[in-house]
Design a protein that fits this description.
alpha+beta; 4 helices; about 40% helix; globular
Length: about 130
């Protein structure tokens, strides 16, 4: 039987806290979504002033990152040359989703929405918070 590492809620809290702090340094309040290896949502945070649409956007960015095991921004780049990739299931071709790895295995993804070009850099802070404790 294979054993697979899994994200915990404490992992999600740690990553979300790191992302919230990184965004606050720039006076931003992003929507944050964290999914497990199956794409199931395990954490969601939408600040009062964020659009309800940012929930779906952040969640889809995270699912894109976990299902492709690479940042969602790579799908964004790929569709520029091959628009057919827009049909990728559970995919959103927008930067802001970052996969999470533990011992070389994808265990989930984190994504940020609502702060434009800073989405992916802030999501990277969340991924780094997991790596420093793994």
């Amino acid at each position: 039987m294979r054993r697979k590492p899994q994200l915990t809620l404490d992992d999600a809290f740690r990553m979300a806290g790191a992302m919230r702090a990184a965004a606050a340094d720039k006076k931003f309040e992003p929507t944050i979504a964290i999914v497990d290896f199956s794409g199931a949502l395990i954490y969601l945070e939408r600040p009062d002033r964020q659009s309800p649409n940012s929930v779906e956007v952040a969640t889809l960015k995270a699912r894109t990152a976990v299902f492709r095991e690479r940042p969602s921004s790579q799908l964004e780049q790929r569709v520029k040359d091959q628009p057919g990739w827009l049909m990728f299931p559970n995919g959103l071709a927008m930067g802001g989703g970052v996969p999470l790895f533990h011992n070389g295995e994808c265990v989930g993804a984190v994504a940020v929405s609502g702060i434009a070009h800073d989405d992916e850099p802030v999501a990277e802070v969340g991924a780094a918070a997991l790596r420093t404790d793994s």
